[in-house]
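Figure 2 data, in text form.
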Amino acid sequence: MNSILTTARHVGPLVSRIVAAVLGGYALAALASVAAVALPLGKPDAVMTGMLASFLVYALAVVWVFAARSAWRAWVGLAVAAIPLLAAAAAVWTGAAA
């Protein structure tokens, strides 16, 4: 039983980082893609910029998750990065950025 708990303590943070990299990185990239539409560009240019930027954001999110000191800091870093992107995406979704 003690062996299982020891294994869980070592594997848990790794699994948390993997989930943060895959799901958190995807969410961050999706928010960046939508938020780019709020940029003062033509609609086709903004969409293309958002699509291209999402690849960079996803890659940086994955690097951040595995470079952070702990899984907790990785999740907090993703959340902090998501806040301004969520605000810009909300402006696009509500039509305020038109």
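Caption note: The helical segments are 2-35, 43-67, 71-94.
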